[in-house]
Amino acid sequence: MIEAFESKTLELHDFYFIGNDYRYHFDAEAKQRFIEIMRERFNAGVTYKGRVLKWDTVIQEKTNELGRFLIGRSLAVDFDEPAPRLERYCGPEIRAKILALTSSQAKRFGIGKSTLHQLRKRTQGSGSIRVYAKVLTAIQSIATDEE
Hints:
mainly alpha, two-stranded antiparallel ribbon, two-stranded antiparallel sheet, 10% strand
């Protein structure tokens, strides 16, 4: 859900309130966009026990682990691994910081020339862009340093 809002796939105007049931609904187009994001997430690979699996397979494995635990064949169930990754999308303030970033600042915070070039190239478009955690942390550190 967070990814859907941050990427602007879903926005508040996609939701509406009807009747006395105190629930929000969202329109058919928004539902399709959300389902597509969910489909991508469930088809994405995740590393689990040294193998790259799709989420549906991981859920099946975890269900089997829980079953073994409930009938006493296992002592524990680990629901922490694997953890889903939330890929963050950058907003207008991060876009501005990327465009204002100099090569020397980027280098100081471990952002290479080619990474900076690609960031600037993607930032100039109008669509949402992904900024991976390491780069986002560096950009935010640069902004904090300047203040």
